[in-house]
Design goal:
The protein is an alpha+beta fold. It is about 35% helix and about 20% strand. It has 31 helices and 29 strands. It has an 8-stranded mixed beta sheet, sandwiched between helices. Helix 27 packs parallel to helix 30 (about 835-850). The N and C termini lie far apart (about 70 Å). The relative contact order is 0.06. It binds S-adenosyl-L-homocysteine (SAH) and magnesium ion. S-adenosyl-L-homocysteine binds near residues 686, 687, 688, 748 and 767.
Length: about 900
């Protein structure tokens, strides 16, 4: 980057919002009032009361009253937007352009001088500003520099000074000592201020008036010595971070103790970083710099290169500032208006949590308070299923921790045309949303641009795009920050070098950590030892994608090799809810839970520990103890209990209307057809966790051979366990069925596998809508053209029935109205489409004609004779001609893409 370019973009200030600009001018004289406006719904379908109710929502418009005039905004979905909009209208009217520089360098310098002289005025001493506490301590202190305070205090603890310095020289943001030199330069022009010969102390010339002295003498501290834990962060990354105790003596400035711990001459040599962590917190790095000595002749500071002065990589990484030498991380300071010293322990665990906050996954773990079991989910299914901070917030958090700009979310609304549904007049007028995410450096340079997938709902588009961005960033961090960043259609990184350099200080800290890491094993199952599930075997809940699972858990660090079986609790939670199937927890837990029944407990051990930083971040108070152990000989023991499983939305909706449940009705529907056909063999395409196959085992049927295929291993594992248990028990025998063999395969049903050719019956219940439409069409061809079963039963939701289902869900109180707001949605977030009766019929008839089948239509839930038809529509295909031997049809006999997951006997 050229120097001219840098200073140019460096001077640009972050854009202020219209409201902020207006506030700077009018302060309390700008009055905003929000008014609620019910949205007017276009009555496109007068009959459908339910639909219209759902669509009606409240909008907001904002009235702004200024001394000169008043304005009203248009209507907005969010109050915030209405306010900003009206503020912008006001700015337009007043002719104020937000980016016109309101500060020339000269003005800023003058303001700096004014501010500094104010800090040493009598009036300031009554203001309650945190710096007043330092003045108070200075007045109490006798001897050298009596009444003077360190320049670093003035340079760091006043936001106004920090902001003005930033305007004068953008580099001050990353270099606290540059602020000090600016402050000193400005202070030299103020007559009432004196500066020590070292250039590190400053104070008011002459003494304060008796009234002020009296108020400063008020001692409001509670007169005790305090012991605060802090961290010593050595300059060399070779040396470990260690806990120290600061002994804060009553009546003495805390900087004295800090200077002692840093082994510098006095508190004026102590420099401060900006707050790290929450902006309002007083958690800062304290350090020193050899440049302090040069402060008296401040001109040369910026160009002075300090040989031999080591950069403190860790501290620099967290603060985003140039921190040199050893540093202390402590939370101490004064708050506004409170004369009390506030302080908080900073432990090793705090440090490791800060480190976690530097990666997207870490941000998620922190937001869930579960370092050892939570993982950044791979999918955003719905707002109601997401737990922890939302992706958008996580991305902001991540950017804040890396000192980047707030990420930008740009939304584009695209009218839906040419969709298969338009001609059915169902999604008429509906639109889709595409969200573009931009990650920008502090200087507003574009680092990364991600274009999300299109979504029906605006909020989802934003969250999904944010999550994709997070996942990409996370992978980049995981894979050692590789420097090959290839653009794709959805991802653009205009300047890879800039991108990498933006994260370079973190990379340096992280690389060190990885060296010291305990081996991590990606092959999760191999390192899972002795999984034990105990407790009553009840009916297995339908654990499908979208189920919410509630568990409680403990994670212990155990030493099995030692004699005394040492055990430390690392993490525990009484209630932890997560969505199944999206990778919201580590694979071990997901694998374990998918085999459990409600009420059961489970325990397992992993022999390879996760990263050391995770263990220490989780360990809280015991981090200090644990950091001294050789963690390699320990294992992690997980204990958990499954408390509750809530069904996905679809099942909840259906369950609210039908008894027996729709899924039971589908099974019965299929059973009748199977028996009527005297079928011997059956294959269930998309068997999921074995709902249908399980029912076949306990019913009277003619079947001897049953098979299931699914693309999801998770479902198949569950099905395997279910079937295995049933077949091994007497239950199946007494049911009077004659099933001899059973098998489960993993594969996509759009692929043909010759082992499943020519079965008597094939079922495919509520599966096609989970595939893309083209795949569903492909499946039709493969099923009838290649698998060629005698009978094929396909069921799928009837889109036209949705208003009834959703009305049921929203009609009752409680269940989120928000969830269902907007035009008629699909029943399940995983549905890629839902067909009307006409669409389904067309698909089925075309296929039947092409492959010599006869097709009938039926359904379950509701009735076929009244509008809007069955809740779940079913097509029954019957082969018209006998099934030819494979070789005759010209189909390959040894195409076997499916993988056998389980087999009986
Ligand atoms: N038939 C089951 C499950 C329905 S849920 C029941 O009625 O309960 C839909 C199932 O289709 C899921 O288990 C999903 O994994 C599966 N599926 C989706 N696409 C698939 C594909 N291309 N091949 C095989 N299975 C698929
Ligand atoms: Mg479904």
């Amino acid at each position: 980057m050229g120097i001219s370019e840098m200073s140019e973009s460096g001077l640009r200030k972050p854009p202020l919002s219209a409201k902020v600009i207006l506030n700077q001018r009018y302060g309390g004289n700008a009055c905003y009032r929000i008014e609620e406006v019910p949205e007017t719904v276009e009555d496109d379908c007068p009959g459908l009361v339910i639909l219209n109710q759902k669509r009606a929502r409240v909008l907001y418009r904002c009235h702004l009253q200024l001394p000169e005039f008043s304005l009203v905004s248009e209507n907005f979905a969010k109050k915030k937007d209405a306010e900003q909009s009206v503020a912008q209208m006001a700015l337009d009217k007043l002719g104020i352009k937000p980016d016109s520089k309101d500060h020339t360098a000269e003005e800023a310098y003058d303001e700096l001088v004014t501010r500094i002289s104010y800090l040493f005025s009598e009036k300031f001493c009554l203001s309650g500003h945190p710096i007043v506490n330092h003045i108070q301590a200075a007045i109490r202190r006798e001897g050298d520099n009596h009444g003077m305070i360190p320049v670093s205090v003035v340079a760091t603890l006043d936001t106004k000074i920090a902001n003005l310095s930033k305007l004068l020289n953008p580099k001050t943001e990353s270099d606290p000592i540059l602020v000090m030199s600016l402050v000193l330069a400005a202070a030299r022009s103020v007559d009432s201020i004196c500066i020590s010969s070292s250039g590190l102390w400053m104070g008011k010339k002459g003494s304060y008036s008796p009234e002020v002295l009296q108020s400063l003498a008020l001692d409001s501290s509670n007169g005790e010595d305090k012991f605060v834990r802090a961290l010593f962060v050595p300059a060399s990354t070779e040396m470990p971070v260690e806990t120290i105790t600061l002994e804060l003596r009553h009546g003495r400035c805390y900087l004295i103790e800090v200077s002692r711990k840093l082994s510098v001459k006095d508190s004026s040599y102590v420099l401060f970083s900006r707050p790290v962590g929450r902006a309002s917190s007083e958690r800062r790095f304290y350090f020193s710099s050899q440049k302090c000595r040069l402060l008296c002749n401040s001109n040369s500071l910026e160009t002075t290169f300090n040989e031999g002065e080591a950069v403190n990589t860790r501290a620099s990484c967290f603060s985003g500032q140039n921190i040199t030498g050893n540093a202390i991380l402590a939370t101490i300071g004064y708050q506004w208006k409170s004369m009390k010293l506030i302080h908080e322990d900073v432990t090793l665990s705090t440090y490791y949590r800060m480190l976690l906050g530097m990666t997207p996954e870490g941000c998620y773990k922190l937001s869930r308070g579960a370092m050892l079991i939570a993982k950044l989910p791979s999918a955003f299914t719905s707002k109601s299923n997401w737990r922890g901070h939302f992706p958008r917030e996580l991305l902001s958090m991540f950017c804040r921790n890396h000192r980047l700009m707030e990420p930008l979310f740009l939304i584009k609304e695209i009218p839906l045309k040419d969709s298969h549904q338009t001609e059915e007049k169902i999604s008429e007028g509906s639109t889709i949303f595409v969200c573009k995410v931009q990650v920008l450096s502090k200087r507003q340079e574009l680092l990364l641009e991600f274009i999300g997938k299109s979504c029906k709902k605006q909020v989802d588009a934003v969250q999904k795009a944010a999550l994709s961005t997070l996942s990409w960033l996370n992978a980049w961090f995981e894979h050692n920050q590789g420097n090959s960043i290839t653009d794709s259609t959805s991802l653009k990184c205009p300047d890879a070098e800039r991108f990498i350099s933006e994260f370079s200080s973190y990379s340096a800290v992280h690389a060190r950590l990885q060296d010291g890491n305990i081996r991590t094993d990606k092959d999760e199952e191999s390192n899972l030892i002795s999984l034990q599930i105990k407790g009553p075997e009840t009916v297995m809940p339908p654990l499908t994608l979208g189920s919410l699972v509630l568990i409680s858990y403990f994670v212990h660090l155990v030493d099995y090799e030692g004699d005394d079986c040492e055990r430390h609790t690392l993490e525990s939670k009484e209630k932890f809810e997560f969505e199944l199937g999206v990778g919201a927890v580590i694979d071990h837990i997901e694998y374990c839970v998918s085999q459990m029944c409600v009420g059961q407990t489970a325990q397992f051990i992993t022999s390879h520990l996760p990263r050391r930083e995770l263990v220490l971040a989780a360990s809280g108070q015991s981090a200090e103890l644990l950091s001294s152990l050789d963690l390699r000989k320990y294992s992690l023991q997980y204990s958990l209990k499954l408390h509750q499983v809530s069904e996905p939305n679809e099942d909840r909706m259906e369950g609210a209307l039908f008894s027996p449940s729709l899924s039971r009705q589908r099974v019965d529907f299929a059973l009748d057809l199977v028996n009527a056909a005297r079928a011997i063999s059956l294959v269930d395409f998309g068997c999921g966790s074995g709902n249908l196959l399980d029912a076949l085992l306990v019913s009277q049927t003619t079947l001897k051979r049953i098979t299931g295929v699914d693309i999801s291993l998770r479902g198949l594992y569950r099905a395997a366990k279910l079937l295995h248990t049933k077949l091994s028990s007497k239950e199946a025998v007494t049911a009077g069925n004659c099933i001899r063999s059973a098998a489960l395969y993993c594969g996509s049903i759009t692929d043909y596998d010759s082992r499943l050719h020519g079965f008597d019956v094939a079922t495919c219940l509520e599966v096609i809508e989970h595939m893309e439409e083209e795949e569903a069409i492909e499946f039709g061809h493969v099923a009838l053209g290649q698998f060629s079963p005698g009978l094929l039963i396909v069921s799928t939701p009837n889109y036209e029935y949705n208003p009834l289902l959703q009305g049921e869900l929203t009609g009752g109180e409680g269940l989120g109205e928000k969830q269902m707001a907007g035009p008629c949605r699909f029943r399940n977030h995983d549905h890629k489409f839902e067909w009307t009766r006409a669409q389904f019929r067309r698909w089925a008839v075309d296929l039947a004609v092409k492959y010599g089948y006869h097709v009938d239509f039926g359904g379950v839930g509701g009735s076929g004779d009244t509008e809007p038809g069955f809740a779940s529509q079913v097509a029954i295909f019957r082969r018209q001609s006998p099934c030819l031997a494979l070789s005759l049809v010209g189909v390959d006999t040894d195409v076997m893409p499916y993988e056998v997951v389980w087999k009986w006997p």
